[in-house]
Every structure is written in C-alpha cells, then in structure tokens.
C-alpha cells in the first residue's frame, strides 16, 4: 500500500489577487476522491500544485510522503495525470503516442509493447491505433490521453474533468478503470462538475469555491446537487460576495 497525496496549508496567488488559499486535502491510498466546484473555483490550480506544475507560495505538497520540492523522476513515473488538455503529439499515431508516454515514464522496453497493446484494447482504441492523433475526434483524443496517463498502472492518479469529451460508453469504461486502480491501492483524485457521475465512483467528495475547500458531500446521499449548491451559496453569503473565479 502506497502513501497518498496531501496538501497542507497551501496557498498560491496570481496577479490581480486571484488564487487558492488555506488548502488542506488528503487523497488516501485505495480511494477515489472527487473534487467538485463551479467553473473557476480553483480545481485546476489545486491539481497543478499537487503535480508540481505550480509551486505554492505557502504550505507543503506531498506525493507518496515525499515533499514535491524533493521529488525525483522515479516518483513522477508513478503518477498518471491529465490536467486540462491531454498531452499527445498530433503527428504521432495513437500507438506511437502511447509508446512515447511509456518511455517518458521509464517503462522497460521489454514490457512496453505489451503494455501499449493492453491499453489500446482496454480503452477501445484498436480501430484508431494507426491513425495520427490530429485526425481523431475529441472523444478519442480524450481516450488516448487517459490511456497514456493510466497504462502504466500508476500509484497516484490526478484527472481534471476526465469525462468532458467522453461518450457514455467511454465514461463507464473510465469509471471501471478508476475503481480498479483504487482497489489496487492507488490514490485517485478526480475533478468534475458532474455530481451524479462522481457520486458513482467516489469514496469522498470535497467541495471547492472561490479558491478554498469549503466542505464535503456524502457520495451516497440524496439530493446531492441541492446539497452542493447550498454549500456554495452559504459560503458566498458568509464572504459577502458572489462566487469567486479562480482558474
């Protein structure tokens, strides 16, 4: 069982005053933790901080009990992530992109081809394996990005709105893959504004608003959407301001 991912007292400001602050979050091994909030609540910024894409102005970020300021490539090789746009080379084929992602994560050459073949099969990409990525539909580019992020069975998974371009079949497929990663002991963090979808897979749901974490929701609770908006409205009223916009 691996250690999880944590943020402790984390804050990050942008020019103009926007940012995130007072972030305390733990994503435990063996769970799917959903992060929900309105557009601009700060979800992507939180995930970039967790992945070392941004450095906090204050506080500490740890992955697998390692402060990310001291993280070495071996740790990042155990991470699978898609934040905002999936990384894929447009002139590479689907297979070439998956092979490149495997090499970047240090996957041994002896198992690389088999792993990529399994990912193509598992993400239902066989019909497009030889196609250049630039010719794919948005949904299949999303599948490719997720396959590249998850094919090496990472211990830490961070996905930002992963179902945005997926059809229902792709959404169900991803749901099963994420549950299996959690069952294998991975710490999984997924952001979304689709409450009904994350409730199907999440062990915990944390709500974010105006750059802060403001509470949690019970994935098995009733009237989940109403509970979410009640939390956000209460937070806005307490601050005496409309919902903030923190990208």
Automatic annotation (TrEMBL):
It comes from the Bacteria. InterPro entries: AAA+_ATPase, ABC_transporter-like_ATP-bd, ABC_transporter-like_CS, P-loop_NTPase. Belongs to the ABC transporter superfamily. GO terms for molecular function: ATP binding; ATP hydrolysis activity. The keyword Transport applies. CDD domains: ABC_DR_subfamily_A. Pfam families: ABC_tran. It comes from Leifsonia tongyongensis. Keywords: ATP-binding, Nucleotide-binding, Transport. This is ABC transporter ATP-binding protein. The keyword Disulfide bond does not apply. Residues 5-235 form the ABC transporter domain.
